[in-house]
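Fold this: Aldo/keto reductase
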Amino acid sequence: MIQNLEDTTTLHNGVKMPWLGIGVFKVEEGPELVHAVKFAIKHGYRSIDTAAIYENEEGVGLAIREGMQESGISREELFITSKVWNSDLGYESTLAAYETSLKKLGLDYLDLYLIHWPVEGKYLEAWRALETLYKEGRVKAIGVSNFQVHHLKELLKTAEIKPMINQVEYHPRLTQKEVQAFCLKNNIQLEAWSPLMQGQLLDHPVLQDIANKYNKSIAQIIIRWDRQNGVITIPKSTKEQRILENATIFDFKLTTEEMAAIDNLNLNLRVGPDPDNFDF
């Protein structure tokens, strides 16, 4: 069982990645973003997840530099993720997009680089670019995001290097059991985005009953459920109290019955786009 915020899982290439991080989806450039990331770093977070399409890589980079200086930690202690956007999928364009993200972040390398969405006809060439970056030592780990089982199967037909991560929408209303089982079988680590369903689960009676038992918030219960399911999680918040609260999940453990009760909330319901039917 994970004991603290610094605990990591080992990806199939030997790279260690924190189980819990902070996401910055929909957080605009500016003081609020910089403060949130710096605050998270100060209080033990080591994993930060951004993306080209979030248009906040420069602010994240500034927060990383200031956070390292103020907290006295090194770049090697952090785990930074970004993602290539759909319009840049392709071999040369993905390589160029990586360089753009590095420049905006002000970093020499990323710990994890992901294909953001499985755009049909484009993601295989983009994956070849990620393999090049990985083989050249430009990035520590590579992976995908929003890939369903059939996307992963198609990718694995030609991939020289298997994805280390598949980051998907994952919460009690969308448990993605088929994707999770496939990733587990193929040693691809599952990672959750939108673990709290953008706040839509924060008044559910089943979750509230469990939260009351442990004197925890519903958000803490869901993040704990993720942890016990072996899923990396990156909840987004810019509020200091929430950032601290989201990390306070190591002093209790859900029972088998409680885990099953949360699993049973699944409705295959998404708050984000369907990877098989999206238009960006």
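The beta strands are 8-10, 16-18, 22-23, 47-49, 79-84, 110-115, 139-145, 165-169, 189-193, 232-233. The chain is about 40% helix and 15% strand.
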